[in-house]
Every structure is written in structure tokens, then in C-alpha cells.
Amino acid sequence: MPTVQDLTRLLEAAAPLAYQESYDNAGLQCGNPQAQVTGVLIALDCTPAIVAEALRRGCNVVVCHHPVIFRPLKRLTGANEVEQTIIAALKNDVAIYAAHTNLDNVRGGVNDKLAEKLGLTNTRVLAPKTGTLARLITYVPHRPEDQQTDVAGRVLAALYAAGAGQVGQYADCSFRTEGTGTFTPGAGTQPAIGAPHQPETLPELRLEVLLPLHRQAAVLQALRAAHPYEEVSYELIKLENTHHEVGSGMMGELPVALAPAAFRAMLKARLLVPVVRHTAFERDIKTVAICGGAGAFLIGAARAAGADAYVTGDVKYHEFFGAEAQLMLCDVGHFESEQFTSEVFRDLLTAGFERTFAVLIAETPTNPVQYDC
């Protein structure tokens, strides 16, 4: 039976914790990582009622989008809903796991699902992140006459398996150049080539691969394990390159341009929302930017990217002026823009742990906002 730790590893492979925003607190909120999973209940928010539903339906893990513990807790007295939720979970051995902005910032996450619901095509990240990549350079012996020893191939295969060599949708990417290496093994060494105190000059290959910074430890461990040299020479250089697969928001195109009123009607129908708060706009809408949750911080990015409409939640009165008549800004509500995140979790867990335990979507309503229409 898989453990809570197995579950967290699966979720963090899809949405690494390194990609959460600095203010966030994604990850295992409470619970024993070694406990066996009997069932998972999925919700956007975890409340005492959600913990009660988990127990009622035989689940000992709640996977949610919003962290229960967002700010440090100074006491657990049940004085508020956060404390009540944690107390109920701890008393009943229910683990709570949250994937928040890390799931917002990856492909296949919150915004990809929202784009899918709206029927957008040619999707790409609206505001890609920088500073998440590094370049690894290492050197391996290269003796073309020895056809039985493909050292470069063996080392690169290990690096790829550890998470290096991915460029966008291209895998196993590397660069190699030929050169000459020199070294003199010291006393007490056991060199793979040569002997102590004997200078060596031999052909080498310089290998270069990209890697996500959060995979640095695993990639370096794989390098040392696969490399034939006793002392492995390498360079690790942090890059400011834009990572186009990681970042905030999403852009895409509608199959057919819609008039503003028709676009808003489509939002209501597909997102199951009774109300869309929006700015005035007269042109047809083809290119659409989106951000699940509170996305007002991306209004300028959506406008600069040439979006005809930007769909998000939690827009304040003065923030609507940021559209400046260049796009139609649509606020569909925080919950409403993220409500399909449960499907993301469900698909990840059912694919990763097929028929091992029940994966259920919560039936308890958690949206605190009600509408009179």
C-alpha cells in the first residue's frame, strides 16, 4: 500500500515545491509521511467539514489547493477554522497536503485545466519565470578506438534519468565538444586511467546539459555515480534564461473569435458562474489570457501580450482601471476560476496509483461566496 510520502513524491514530481511563490506554504501540512494511504479526498479548501467528509468516506488523506496553514500558527486552541481543521485532522490521523502556487506555475496544472475548460488552443505561459535553470558542464574520457566503452552515452543517460537535458518539449538534449584533458594522479589515488605520479594527457569530451535548479542534488548524485573518474570535474552555472514551461498565467486562442457578450456568455456556461464582473470592450475576442485565483498582478502582462480578454478572480475596483480599454478584464471569482483543480489532482493520483486506493472529489461545498441573481 502506498504511503503518504509516496503520494507527496508523485504530486511534487508534477508540481515541484521549488516553483511555489516565496510567500506560499505548499506541501504536507500535517500527518505522518510513513502512514499508508487508505483513500484520498480532493478539495479546493480543507475545512473541518472536509475532514469530517474524509472520515465518513474512508479517506485518511485530504489533498487540497489552498494551504490550511498559510501563516505560522502560535497555538492550537480551536479558536478559528484553521486551528479547528488541524486539530480535527491530527485527532483522526488525517494527513493534509496542499499544492498551491507550485501547481499554478506548471504546465498541466491549474491554468492548463482552466484553458481546457475554455477551449483555448496554442496555449503558452503568460509570465514565464527566470532563474530556475542551470547549466552543468563535465568532462569524460573519449577514446574513439574503444568501441565498447561509450562513457559519454552512459553519463548522459544517467543525467537524463535524474532530470537533466529537458528543453521545452524536447528531451535528452545535450552538447558535446572534443578537447584534451591533462592530470597527474596524486599519492593514494586509484585513477581510472593512468597511475599515481604519472602525468596523463588524453582526449576528452566536454558535455553540457540544462537542468532545473531543484533537481541539482539528484543530477550531481547521478553524475558522480555514472562517471568513471575518481574525482569528477564539473561546473554548475545558474542561468537567468526564461523557463517557458514554468510561470504564472496562460495565453491561448479561441477556435473562433467571439463578440464580447458571446464571450461572457461562454464564460458563464463553461465555468458555471452566475456573474462576470468586466470592463467595457467593443472588439471581438480571439486571444485570451487567464490566471486561476487572484490574478490582478498579471493585468499588465496580459495587456502587453496582446490579449483581447483576461479572465481571473479577485479583481479590486481600482484594478479594473488597469485594463485601460485595451482588453476586456473579466473577474469570474476566485473559487470559480480554480474549481476544476480537483480534476487535476484526480487525474494525477489515479494515473500514479491505479486502483490502489479510492480517489474521491469532495461533495462538501467550500466556496464562502454566495450569489443572489
TrEMBL record:
One GO MF term: metal ion binding
Classification via Pfam families: DUF34_NIF3 (PF01784)
UniProt name for this protein: GTP cyclohydrolase 1 type 2 homolog
Subunit structure and binding partners: Homohexamer.
Keyword tRNA-binding appears in the UniProt entry: no
Assigned protein family: Belongs to the GTP cyclohydrolase I type 2/NIF3 family.
Residues annotated to bind a divalent metal cation: H65, H66, D104, H334, E338
Top-level division of the source organism's lineage: Bacteria
Keyword Metal-binding listed: yes
Species of provenance: Hymenobacter lapidarius
InterPro entries registered for this protein in UniProt: DUF34/NIF3, DUF34/NIF3_bac, DUF34/NIF3_sf, N-reg_PII/ATP_PRibTrfase_C
Keywords for this protein: Metal-binding
A GO CC term attached to the entry: cytoplasm
